[in-house]
Amino acid sequence: MFNFHRQKPSVQGLRIQRPRVQRPRTQHYHTLKRALLTAMLIFSSGFVITEGQAAEGPNTEIETKAENSRVAQLQQINQQFAATVVIPTYQTLAEQTSRLALASVTFENTPTEANLSNLRDAWLAVELTWAQSNAFEFGPVHSLGYGPAIASPVDTTGLDLLLNQLSENQLSENQLSENQLSETEGSAALANYLTEGSIHPSLKGLEAIAHLLYHPEKTPESGNRLASDFSTTERTYLNYLAAEVQTATTDLLEVWQTGWNNYPAYATVLANAGSPDNAVYISTRSGTEEIIRGLFNSLDVVVNEELPGLIAAPEQLAESALDLQLLNSTLMGIQLASRSTGFSELVNSSSDQSQQQIQQSLETATVLIAAAQEPQDPDVISFALTVALDSLQTAHALIDSDVLPLAQE
Questions:
Q1: Per-residue DSSP letters for 224-247?
Q2: Cβ distance 353 to 53 under 8 Å?
Q3: Which alpha helices (H) appear in 183-231, and where do they start and end?
Q4: Across the chain, which distance is largest between two alpha carbons, in Å?
Q5: Helix (H, G, I), strand (E, B) or coil at 184
Q6: Which pTM was predicted?
Q7: Per residue in 7-63, pLDDT tens?
Q8: pLDDT (tens digit, 9 = 90+) per residue, 356-365?
Q9: Which end of the chain has less neighbouring CB within 10 Å, N or C?
Q10: Is 63 helix (H, G, I), strand (E, B) or coil?
Q11: Cα 48 from Cα 64, distance rounded (Å)
Q12: Where does 82-229 have alpha helices with state H?
């Protein structure tokens, strides 16, 4: 719900869809102060260590040994990254989209408040895992178009027009009967049309689901849309959207695990980077560079786009913490990728301090962002996020200067 290589919804675009949950405006200054103090202590300790050990100067012998074993370290990262990071995340995503599809069917057939709540919860779970996967946004998620299929930026105006046309049976070529259909017949006819038709990606995906679940023009000021506010057409279209997302995530997982169109599993392609017959990664370093660039690009968007945008509009965060939840999920994905098998050893081969300081910076930011999710004064939220941004800028700079070059030719 939140631009990386895949067409990831922008923060600005998503705010239209975000739930306007009414939250108490009580102050949590003590909670945030404790979080700030803890975070700054963690963060500052990294600089103390760095300054103290930097004075010792380089150890030529250690650096020589590290250079000799670097290729083996790169191979270890390439061989283990899919198994330990990518595939488990996409497995979770596929399971969650399966539950989302089931929840949408249940809500279509029985539009109760409980079923609507379950559908919203299922959608949020998928959004959070999708945000986490930003850290390894490369390969088939981009080249085979699964990113746009799962989370294309939504054309809200076009989606509303389509829903109006579907509701009024004003489809081209008389796809639906011109006569008034019963609710069951109309729903079935609409489902058949959607299945056989070609709906533009900007009218599908997680953002489209969010738009229907939290339509800003159809949501009363007192809270979220009620189950009774959803038309039959909207419920049927939600079901269609959820099924499409489920198909895309299932196919994405299959490509990584078993391959596609007689091509090997992408996990194998990455693991065998540098093999003579590997047309995707012609060297071992190119595979590792793809991995490191994935997490760096994810962090780059957070540092240069997402966090500055949130800091500039803390009033909206005081009403709903969804943006911050998604942001922390993104950081969790970055942490997961940067702690993968072989990653620490690779970074430590060049600098004993970089990996520790990167992790401390990421941890500091997640603590602060989590604390900012509590309802409190917008100025306090903005301050916490500003400190988090300062911390992430350190990790961003270290990955760029100390880590990425290790995998470059």
A1: SPPGGGS-HHHHHHHHHHHHHHHH
A2: yes
A3: 183-196, 206-213
A4: 84
A5: helix
A6: 0.81
A7: 444 333 334 344 444 444 444 555 555 555 555 545 444 443 344 444 455 556 645
A8: 999 999 999 9
A9: C
A10: helix
A11: 27
A12: 87-109, 113-132, 140-143, 146-151, 156-167, 183-196, 206-213
